[in-house]
Amino acid sequence: MKFQIFLIISQQFLYFASSACVDETRTPITIGKIQPCPFYDNKPVCCRQDNVDQMISNYRSIDATFGQDGGGCDICGANLKRFWCIYTCDPDQTNFMKYTGRANVTDPANKNKLIEVQLVSLTTKPQVACEVYSSCSRTSFVNQVSAMQSPGGFFNFLGEQAITQGQQFITFEFSDYDSMIMDDTWMCNHKSNITTVDDKGVIHYWDQYGYEIKQQCGCNTCEESCDANQILYKPTGVLYGFETSYVLFTWLFVILFALGITIIRKYQQNKKAIENLDIGLITS
Ligand SMILES: *[C@@H]1O[C@H](CO)[C@@H](O)[C@H](O)[C@H]1NC(C)=O
Ligand SMILES: *[C@@H]1O[C@H](CO)[C@@H](O)[C@H](O)[C@H]1NC(C)=O
């Protein structure tokens, strides 16, 4: 029995050696079912239960603003949810993101206030940024915010939403190397053939990562293509001065993305407890 435990521990050790969380106080562990990120169920992840709880509530905002319920497109919502799940939970986070220091920035929700934030740099492939942006670019929310009229502007806008409640400011880099892996992104006009039938005989459509696609996107919420070579980066908001519409919209919808990793300080204190938890999981 002892020998077996040793074997399991050494395998875990090898695994940890090649994958890492951006929060150095964490290692990827299995936390069971992850409702907002079904494709990570029972896999080792860098997120913890409090991150999961935050995602559950933030993802309601995604549905309300980018999804069908908000005059948008459910495939856009599903793509964004998967994107933030990878950001928050991926066991290989250090491959595509890093903490780059701390800074005092203007609070998007109150421009007279400075907030001290953790600076986070996240690298995505231009193609991935383009695909996710395409699935969202015609939604009414994106249409109304001038900062989101390019893939780069779109992601930087989302990154700034983490300032107020996540105390993180995420900047995006676009590169084919050392970047986030997000394969098989559906375009907004994709017709799902993955179905389930509920007790009442109603058919539900899903994407291949476990997100429900309640309704197909209509012509006016769907753009079929995006040119990955177009200008991907357009500085927005906080660090570059304000636009009235931007401030207004941020104030109206303080949408919470990417609380993810956060709560760093809390986990620094709990480091010991987490290490003990790891051992508990492995040996039980
Ligand atoms: C932010 O401002 C506070 C208060 O003025 C200061 O104590 C802190 O060191 C500043 N942080 C950074 C990263 O500049
Ligand atoms: C859905 O369509 C894809 C490609 O068109 C096919 O590979 C896949 O097997 C289909 N899945 C189901 C459940 O029919």
UniProtKB/TrEMBL annotation:
Domain Niemann-Pick C1 N-terminal: 37-231
Assigned keywords, A-Z: Membrane, Signal, Transmembrane, Transmembrane helix
One GO cellular component term: membrane
InterPro entries: NPC1_N (IPR032190)
GO BP annotations, alphabetical order: sterol transport
Single GO term (MF): sterol binding
Transmembrane segments: 246-264
Source species, domain of life: Eukaryota
Signal peptide, first to last residue: 1-19
Keyword Transmembrane assigned: yes
Name of the protein this chain belongs to: Niemann-Pick C1 N-terminal domain-containing protein
